[in-house]
Amino acid sequence: MMRTLVIFAGLLALWQSVVSLSGAPPYILPGPAPVADALWQRSDLILGHAGTTLAEILLGLGLGTVFGAAAALMLSWSARVRPWLLPVLVISQAVPVFALAPVLVLWLGYGMASKVAMAALIIFFPVTAAMFDGLRRTDPLFIDCARTLGAGRLDLLLHVRLPAALPAFASGLRVATAVAPIGAIVGEWVGSSSGLGYLMLHANARLQIDLMFAALFTLSILAVSLYYGIDFLLRAAMPWQAGEARPTTATGGF
């Protein structure tokens, strides 16, 4: 907690230093104080739009995780499906998701559905790739032991491969959580009537730069809180991994 506060204070000091040293006018780069004032004065407006963006991110995260995990299971379960499905997944990532935003808005409308679909598309591939990699890298010793005890294919999947793939799945979910806000915000930029992305565009058009930065600051807090919330839940669900992931002074690792 203390480290987080120190980092936050350092970033604010750096921000104010850039404003003071560059002499940038407030309509280009406002300082922390005007942004904090806008955040306080327009808190009702900002919180309303933040609720919309948070709902889009959470729904997209849920859908992308479910479909990503299902795709990874299909790739791992069936050797016949894998050569057909894997190239489709790779090709789907070759098309920039940002280019699909206008199409999704055209198909799904200006409401929440198109933003949820954007977030789910961005989340889908990291979850699929990480979980499929975890399923493939199950220790052969575990599989041999389970087969010796008479485990069938479904037993191997449920009791050996899936538990062994959980750390990789968790890594993919952390990456997905970090990039999920991108899909929601890009969708709001293309076409929406609410959300922090919409508020930023609206404020920019009216030269309300302090309000635009306040919305950006709120989005940053939202994204960081969501990431650490998911990380906390994953550590609680897999306590044996939490100790390995924690940095140690002996190794100096992450």
Describe this structure in words.
The protein has eleven helices and no strands. By secondary structure, the protein is mainly α. Helix 6 runs antiparallel to helix 8. The protein is elongated. The chain starts with a helix and ends in a 9-residue tail after the last helix. The C terminus is likely disordered.
Q: What structural class results from the helix and strand content? A: mainly alpha
The helix/strand order is HHHHHHHHHHH
Proportion of beta-strand residues: under 5%
Q: Count of helical segments? A: 11
| Sheet with the most strands, sense and barrel status | none
The unreliable regions are 247-254
How would you name the oligomeric state of the polypeptide chains in this document?
A: single chain
Average residue-wise pLDDT: 86
Radius of gyration: 22 Å
CA(first)-CA(last) distance = 18 Å
Got a strand count? 0
Give the overall shape. elongated
Report helical residue fraction. over 70%
Précis, in short:
The chain is an all-alpha fold and 254 residues long.
Any key phrases for this structure?
254 residues; mainly alpha; 0% strand; elongated; disordered C terminus
